[in-house]
From TrEMBL:
Residue ranges, annotated region (Disordered): 1-30
Domain of life: Eukaryota
Name of this chain's protein: Uncharacterized protein
Chain intervals with Acidic residues compositional bias: 19-29
UniProt lineage: Eukaryota, Fungi, Fungi incertae sedis, Blastocladiomycota, Blastocladiomycetes
A Pfam cross-reference name: WD40
Biological process annotations from GO: rRNA processing
Any one GO cellular component localisation term in the record: nucleus
InterPro entries in the cross-refs: PWP1 (IPR044285), WD40/YVTN_repeat-like_dom_sf (IPR015943), WD40_PAC1 (IPR020472), WD40_repeat_CS (IPR019775), WD40_repeat_dom_sf (IPR036322), WD40_rpt (IPR001680)
Swiss-Prot/TrEMBL WD repeat ranges: 163-205, 301-342
Organism: Allomyces macrogynus (strain ATCC 38327) (Allomyces javanicus var. macrogynus)
Keyword list, A-Z: Phosphoprotein, Repeat, WD repeat
Length: 403
């Protein structure tokens, strides 16, 4: 689950229709420049879907709208059927396949709106958000496909970890916002791969969590460093993090954790770009300074009785949200060094798996759980939208606890 900015100046459906384009269909598909898009990956009854919801922003002109009651509006724009259970999604704006025929036929520049989707299969699918009724992805990162019959030796080779493609479930994705043609992935096959979106091929492959006595741990976390664009943070099922420059991967900072990492978020406050917030499966959140990784700067017992599943920082970097298996959303003020709990709310969504702040509307957050999703405006103490199966919309004050 993630929010992204709904405009990039290139996409016909991500901006108001031009003069003369006044069909009802164009009007329904158009997304205003102040809108945000919420992407939700879910599975129900063995059917996996990628849903795109639009959170409308303020009007694009200064005129008062008599029909505007001051409440935010969220609606489903379109959805895509997925062939596999989604484990990781990542939005990116770089048009894949510049060294193939893809760009010339669909995009005039290198900017667009795409979603990378990974799951229990080794392939990573790249979907064009602007193609509303897409039946197949724009491109696939993975093993070359062939219709030729294969002998047992070739089949065994395709199941062995290698430097060209994943051979097991892909658990994590991270897009490099500086070097925009690079996408990092972490897999249950123990490798981390860097994909070139120009050539749709793997250009680097690492086994960062190799064990001294042989073997390696599954990699479930990848995060590019925002201020050091060649550096990557990885987390694995060995209770550790690795931070390394992808040009010299053997010179890694190793961070030992109290439990396996579930999620991480880089500190974006000025002068603190070597710090990372880490959520672990035992319900804790830690702040770690990679310059002194022997001990965390602080540790929170954030969620009781299970994992802290997801973290999200506001655009200002001053507020951290966490969700966990205890069905609770918690909001922490992290601007002053030590965290302070500012809001706690138990949601009726079962165990919570994901959260994401809206980048443009302060206090608006999306949360996803086992029983659905909800978008909350914490400043207004209101539920913008709830989607929780047959349960109906959630009472905005139910089980809430503002502290």
């Amino acid at each position: 689950m993630t929010f992204h900015d709904g405009t990039n100046g290139e996409d016909p459906y991500l901006q108001p229709a031009a003069d003369g384009e006044d069909s009802d269909e164009d009007e329904d598909l158009a997304i205003g420049k102040n809108d945000n898009v919420l992407v939700i990956a879910s599975t129900a009854d063995d059917i996996s879907v990628l849903e795109f919801q639009v959170l409308e922003g303020p009007p694009e002109d200064d005129e008062d709208d008599d029909d505007d009651d001051g409440r935010a509006n969220l609606y489903t724009h379109h959805d895509l059927m997925l062939p596999t259970f989604p484990l990781a999604v990542e939005w990116f704006d770089y048009v894949p396949g510049s060294k193939s025929d893809l760009r010339s036929t669909s995009h005039a520049t290198d900017k667009g709106a795409f979603i990378a989707v990974a799951g229990f299969t080794p392939d990573i699918e790249l979907w064009d958000v602007d193609v509303v009724d897409a039946m197949v992805p724009t491109a696939v990162l993975g093993a070359p496909k062939t219709d030729a019959p294969q002998d047992k030796a070739k089949k065994r080779a395709l199941k062995k970890a290698n430097d060209a493609f994943h051979v097991d479930a892909v658990l994590a994705l991270s897009w490099n916002t500086t070097h925009r043609n690079f996408l990092a992935s972490g897999s249950a096959d123990t490798t981390v791969k860097i994909w070139d979106l120009d050539t749709l091929s793997c250009v680097r492959s690492f086994v960062p969590h190799a064990k001294a006595k042989g073997g390696a741990a599954k990699v479930g976390l990848t995060k590019w460093a925002p201020t050091a664009p060649t550096c990557l943070l990885t987390g694995a099922h060995d209770r550790s993090l690795r931070f390394f420059d992808t040009r010299t991967p053997h010179d890694a900072v190793v961070v030992k954790l109290r439990a396996d990492p579930e999620d991480a978020a880089w500190n974006t406050l000025p002068g603190r770009d070597t710090e990372v917030y880490v959520a672990t499966e035992d319900g804790h959140v830690q702040l770690i300074d990679l310059r002194n990784a022997a001990a965390p700067k602080w540790t929170l017992s954030a969620h009781q009785g299970g994992a802290t599943s997801s973290l999200s920082l506001t655009a200002s970097g001053r507020t951290l949200a966490s969700v966990g298996a205890d069905k609770t959303l918690k909001v922490w003020n992290v601007a002053e060094g030590k965290p302070a709990l500012s809001h706690s709310r138990q949601l009726q969504l079962g165990p919570l798996f994901a959260c994401s702040w809206c980048p443009d509307q302060e206090g608006v957050i999306a949360v996803g759980g086992a029983r659905g999703s909800v978008v909350l405006d914490l400043h207004a103490n209101a539920t913008i939208h709830a989607n929780a199966g047959d349960r109906g919309e959630e009472d905005e004050d139910d089980d809430s606890d503002d502290e």
